[in-house]
Description:
Blueprint: E1 6-10, H1 26-38, E2 43-46, H2 50-53, H3 62-77, E3 81-85, E4 89-91, E5 94-96, H4 113-130, E6 136-140, H5 161-178, H6 191-194, H7 202-207, E7 212-216, H8 222-226, H9 231-234, H10 236-247, E8 255-260, H11 272-284, E9 289-294, H12 325-339, E10 349-353, H13 372-382, E11 387-391, H14 398-404, E12 408-410, H15 412-416
Parallel strand pairs: 1-2, 1-9, 2-3, 3-6, 7-8, 8-9, 10-11, 10-12
Antiparallel strand pairs: 4-5
Helix pairs in contact: 1-3, 3-4, 4-5, 10-11, 11-12
GO molecular function: hydrolase activity
InterPro entries: GH (IPR017853)
Protein name: Glycosyl hydrolase
Amino acid sequence: MPPAVRFGVNYTPSQGWFHHWLDFDLDAVRTDLDAIAALGLDHIRVFPVWPYFQPNRTLIRPRAVEQLVSLADAAAERGLDVNVDGLQGHLSSFDFLPAWTRTWHRRNLFTDEDVVEGQAAYLRTLAAALADRPNFIGMTLGNEVAQFAAGPHPDPDRITTEQAGAWLERMLAACAQGAPGATHLHAEYDASWYQDDQPFTPAHAARLGAMTAVHSWVFNGTAQRHGRAGAATTGHAAYLIELSKAWADEPHRPVWLQEVGAPAPLIPPEHAAGFTSATIEGALDCTDLWGVTWWCSHDVSRSLADFPELEYGLGLLTSDGAVKPAGEAVARAAREARATPPAPKPRTTALVVDAGDDDTAPHRSVCAPGGRVFEAFARLSEDGARPTTVLASHADDKQHLAGRGITEVVTPEAVTG
């Protein structure tokens, strides 16, 4: 029997959004967690804002760390496990970087030795503070940190693929030093899978850390090309899960759908529940799925200014705690998965992915919306097939194919002509 799929949510505090760390109110947090637990979820992903916790390279605020632990303890009281993101940097279109890395102190986030050692100390401190909590899942290095390493960021910290890998390994090691044996991982946005010049690569995502994390957002050209109800749109999360398996060295490496949401107006609010249900159904049809963590728990309050419009309405609950239709859909999916645990069959048809060199993937845009791999996968899905993916370098490797249960290999050209 495969392990039960986890269902959770990215915790966005109803009062003050992530700025709640500046005026931390544990009673308000408890109210939020009560609402999350009432949905029948089993974990949350938590976001300590980096410059609030480490305002100086050699100052990690003890009180902030204590507040994080108290949040984790409050979650435990409600039966919720906790994953903690460390180096936020970027949340909902805003960058959060400490002053000791910017302007007059401008230093590369990934290669400057002082900055890197400061980051390692911070991650090690957070992990150690939570290491003895039984509901602590582990650390995620940060939220989509890769976006700082290339365009379209307006001021990227340029690095090579080798430097990105070295940074990831060092940060993961720091987490392990703080909390040995916990589940530590990193999480990048879809540029790692789709953008040719992104130094954080599919190989990094699928080979480093305890599991692979994918973040699925259909405003990346998917919904624009295929519509709100197209197979490529409702199946985008499943596509990323299966795409990640092409680069994995382990045939059954766990994959965590760590962020997925229903962004308006591409997914109109009246269709958010249907999109949510279809997306989760598709993800549950993938083997080796660790869990589904929806973005996000609560809507952003309209009292806060300057967010992109879509960010205000992504919650499963309103900012005053009322359950939205998408929240009901996630709760129903979690309830049904507990009653009848999903047991998807292996996907026997694999689509060949040729992105150039396997480690650097210089042509990975073939996997992006409009690319030949993406569109072939969409065509197969529309026709009722259940495809997965395999690297071109493994397409004739009988041992590799057998280990994954693949019996048929097809090229994108054979699908789309």
